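[Discussion] Sanity-checking designs against the backbone

I'm trying to build intuition for which residues belong where. Below is a structure token string of 175 positions. I'd appreciate it if someone posts a full sequence so I can compare it with mine line by line.
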């Protein structure tokens, strides 16, 4: 399920998601994020960040390493792959307040889902993303697909003035 709920502020978009879809779903399987103008692909998917590791030897020099810090998308995707029988929901509030094309980046390719057959609900296409795939054991190699139990729900305020335009190609991938 990929659905965007449209409406004026205060009309119950988030409430509808919470009561009609997420009611009874464990909070461990719900991931929430709010887009804003400075929100980026790195925030959404993840990024390499420096990490200081203290020396194992007393008085020794610390070392700096770079580790992938998962963003909310990757955290939710990992949870979905842990158990394909349990639905996982990524709720994106205020989708039009961020630049969706830039935030989703190559993830956009994954939004096309197969409608029938053995792969129904899975991404029709894959992307190669080593940073995401190395942390998700269930993914073969460095290819990434969205599983059928991974759902994206979004809210968009139709009355907002200072928002990014969501193009038709992006919107058509959602109900």
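Best answer:
Here's mine. Compare freely.
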């Amino acid at each position: 399920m990929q659905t965007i709920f449209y409406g004026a502020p205060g009309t119950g978009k988030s409430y509808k998601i919470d009561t009609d879809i997420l009611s009874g779903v464990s909070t461990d399987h719900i991931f929430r994020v709010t887009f804003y103008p400075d929100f980026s692909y790195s925030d959404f998917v993840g990024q390499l960040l420096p990490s200081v590791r203290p020396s194992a030897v007393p008085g020794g020099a610390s070392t700096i390493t770079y580790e992938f810090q998962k963003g909310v998308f990757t955290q939710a995707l990992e949870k979905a792959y842990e158990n394909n029988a349990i639905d996982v929901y990524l709720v994106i509030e205020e989708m039009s307040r961020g630049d969706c094309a830039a935030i989703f980046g190559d993830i956009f390719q994954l939004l096309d889902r197969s409608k029938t057959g053995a792969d129904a609900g899975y991404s029709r296409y894959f992307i190669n993303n080593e940073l995401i795939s190395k942390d998700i054991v269930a993914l073969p190699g460095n290819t990434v697909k969205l599983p059928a139990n991974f759902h994206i729900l979004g809210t968009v305020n139709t009355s907002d003035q200072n928002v990014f335009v969501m193009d038709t190609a992006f919107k058509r991938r959602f109900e």
